[in-house]
């Protein structure tokens, strides 16, 4: 958040969506009451290190305050049910403050077993059947994932999928508080089993069924729900390859990521001293948003289509605003925060709005052009990710049309070079697989990728060319590249 924007917010003073606290070494008294109230009302932003008059007093030890907030965040005494927010240390001149941005929640939250809402700059305890009923009704209308189905039981959920989610959470954060709970307690704590106090109804929510339901359970609740993933490069009227997903969202995410990994090339770069895959960074965000922010009561399917020059995802949506979302000029709001909470716990989603910003950040490194992604919010949310020449030069579809079949390549090499040693066959298999994965490159590129001496690799290239498995395209030795032959392409 830019300093200018922080100052503009501070200048507005305290109101329903803005609150100030002074802090030193600990979480200030009243903070979680205000967090509870904002979540129950319209969301907002809280600044620590600013007094009631809006003067910046700073925080002497912000790391200690941050640690205290995070420790209390998952404690049901301070906030129930748990809600994932991210406090951040900011610098104002030569002092530190902490900001906490909160969206309106789909759930009704309690602090110290009391329910609060924001009125003006105050937190007001919600009492009386009328006000409670109004609050729960408002929350129910906001997010379809929160609809309660009293007839659902644990037996309608897939225990294997719940355990899979636990393992993924453990890999992302071995100390996550949900891991110490049994399945029922975890689902309650995450808001996937709840009580509607306006009518006494309680049970598992639609979100619980979508995340962990057996196929039959999901089909009974949402018979029209499906996600279609297609590749349309050669056959634009129908598809070259297709998968249809109707099951739980955990497996849907994993299968969509596998589809992308099969169809699009990986590309690595170094960030903060770590080697990272740009393909994974980009499509983790795209697929996460497709699943998390969809309106699941809409009968329209989610479509995820890979074209030669772009990837387009369309999603049924309940828009907060309408129009194109820009990374520096939009106010993100969650559509299914309980589902998102689980995706965040598994490391599949970051803070709200990160998807738009991260895709813009990493895409230019992935496709090596200035083309920008587009995010258009309307009744149908459309995400367009340009691919430039990625699938023309270097993509798996430019080669084997549907992913590199390493086993088939190995078998072809063994057949063509039966007189060669097993070591040589292995080297040729590795090289041909690399060319199939990233066509259109030259010997230095493939030498680096396969960790082979360039002179040796040139001999391997000659063998593959003589066997009519690859061919050189391009007029000169510097501008051309190696591609699979049409004969091999058909065989693969």
SS-based class: alpha+beta
What is the gyration radius calculated from CA atoms? 27 Å
Q: Which spans have pLDDT < 50 for at least 5 consecutive residues?
A: 393-403
The percentage of residues in β strands lies in 15-25%
Number of strands: 20
CATH class of the largest domain: Alpha Beta
What would a concise description of this structure say?
The protein is of the alpha+beta class. The protein has helices at 3-11, 31-40, 62-73, 129-142, 159-172, 183-189, 206-212, 215-221, 249-263, 278-292, 337-345, 354-367, 406-416, 422-437, 443-450, 454-466, 486-491; strands spanning 18-21, 44-48, 88-92, 95-102, 116-119, 122-125, 148-149, 193-196, 201-205, 227-232, 241-245, 268-271, 274-277, 302-307, 310-316, 323-324, 374-377, 380-386, 470-473, 481-484.
List the helices and strands and how they pair.
Layout: H1 3-11, E1 18-21, H2 31-40, E2 44-48, H3 62-73, E3 88-92, E4 95-102, E5 116-119, E6 122-125, H4 129-142, E7 148-149, H5 159-172, H6 183-189, E8 193-196, E9 201-205, H7 206-212, H8 215-221, E10 227-232, E11 241-245, H9 249-263, E12 268-271, E13 274-277, H10 278-292, E14 302-307, E15 310-316, E16 323-324, H11 337-345, H12 354-367, E17 374-377, E18 380-386, H13 406-416, H14 422-437, H15 443-450, H16 454-466, E19 470-473, E20 481-484, H17 486-491
Parallel strand pairs: 1-2, 10-14
Antiparallel strand pairs: 2-4, 3-4, 5-6, 7-9, 8-9, 10-11, 12-13, 14-15, 15-18, 16-17, 17-18, 19-20
């Amino acid at each position: 958040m830019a300093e200018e924007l922080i100052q503009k917010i501070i200048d507005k003073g305290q109101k329903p969506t803005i609150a100030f606290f002074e802090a030193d070494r600990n979480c200030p008294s009243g903070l979680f009451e205000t967090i509870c109230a904002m979540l129950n009302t319209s969301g907002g932003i809280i600044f620590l290190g600013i007094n009631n008059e809006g003067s910046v007093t700073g925080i002497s030890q912000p790391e200690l305050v941050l640690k205290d907030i995070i420790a209390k965040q998952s404690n049901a005494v301070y906030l129930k049910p748990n809600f994932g927010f991210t406090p951040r240390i900011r610098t104002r001149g030569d002092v530190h403050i902490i900001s906490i941005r909160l969206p309106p929640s789909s759930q009704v939250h309690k602090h110290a077993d009391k329910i609060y809402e924001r009125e003006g700059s105050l937190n007001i305890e919600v009492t009386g059947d009328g006000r409670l009923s109004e609050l729960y009704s408002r929350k129910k209308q906001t997010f379809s994932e929160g609809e309660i189905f009293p007839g659902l039981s644990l037996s309608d959920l897939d225990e294997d999928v719940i355990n899979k989610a636990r393992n993924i959470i453990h890999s992302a954060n071995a100390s996550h508080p949900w891991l110490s709970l049994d399945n029922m307690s975890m689902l309650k704590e995450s808001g996937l089993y709840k009580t509607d106090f306006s009518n006494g109804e309680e049970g598992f929510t639609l979100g619980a069924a979508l995340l962990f339901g057996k196929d039959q359970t999901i089909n009974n609740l949402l018979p029209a729900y499906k996600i279609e993933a297609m590749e349309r490069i050669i056959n634009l009227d129908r598809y070259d390859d297709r998968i249809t997903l109707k099951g739980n969202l955990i497996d849907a995410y994993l299968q969509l990521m596998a589809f992308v990994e099969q169809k699009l090339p990986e590309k690595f770069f170094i960030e903060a001293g770590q080697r990272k895959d740009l393909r994974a960074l980009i499509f983790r965000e795209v697929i996460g948003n497709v699943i998390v922010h969809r309106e699941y009561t809409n009968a329209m399917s989610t479509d995820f289509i890979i074209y030669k020059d772009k990837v387009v995802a369309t999603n049924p949506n309940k828009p907060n605003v309408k129009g194109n979302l820009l990374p520096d000029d939009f106010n993100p709001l969650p559509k299914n925060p309980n589902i998102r909470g689980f995706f965040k716990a598994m490391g599949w989603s970051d803070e709200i709005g990160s998807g738009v910003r991260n895709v813009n950040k990493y895409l230019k490194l992935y496709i090596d052009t200035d083309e920008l992604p587009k995010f258009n919010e309307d009744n149908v949310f459309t995400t367009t990710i340009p691919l430039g020449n990625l699938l023309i030069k270097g993509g798996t579809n430019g080669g084997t049309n549907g992913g590199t079949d390493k086993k088939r390549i190995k078998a072809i090499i063994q057949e063509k070079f039966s007189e060669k040693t097993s070591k040589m066959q292995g080297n040729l298999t590795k090289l041909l697989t690399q060319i199939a994965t990233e066509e259109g490159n030259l010997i230095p590129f493939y030498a680096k990728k396969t960790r082979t001496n360039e002179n040796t690799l040139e001999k391997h290239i000659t063998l593959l060319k003589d066997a009519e498995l690859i061919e050189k395209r391009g007029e000169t030795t510097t501008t051309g590249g190696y591609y699979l032959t049409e004969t091999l392409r058909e065989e693969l």
